[in-house]
Amino acid sequence: MKVPILSEEYQIMIAPQGGGRMKSYRKELWFNTRTRRAFINITGQVEECLKESGVKEGLVLVIAMHITASVFINDDESGLHHDLDVWLEKLAPHEPVSQYRHNNGEDNADAHLKRSIMGREAVVAITDGKLDFGPWERIFYGEFDGRRRKRVLVKVIGE
Fold it and tell me: Could you tell me the CATH number of the domain that includes residue 132?
């Protein structure tokens, strides 16, 4: 069935792709790093969620559910991870902790700033039941105030 969408300039006809029912899947991934800062490749865990969901066409949303952690997409290359860590530390150094107004009884203002730079979530298209990445792309959990349990939400929506 085609659904007309009207505009002042032209008409677009949209045909549903699979004709199936919309599915929704939700899973929490938990992390507890040994270090204050870390980058963890979570692509395999997200792929497992996608497999469990049964979705073949749609989107996956991966969200860091803590304000001092991040989810982002980049290359899984140790030199790049080192460069990211050094760059972020230059932009928002952890010490001296007294340089931040937020650090009144806390010491993690830098982690909040690093999360703001690196972002909260990543969205990836699902095509033929697989994550539709560009070359070298992988999904990462970025931890900026570690040594405690934090979660990442994986939400898969599609047919």
Answer: 2.60.120.460
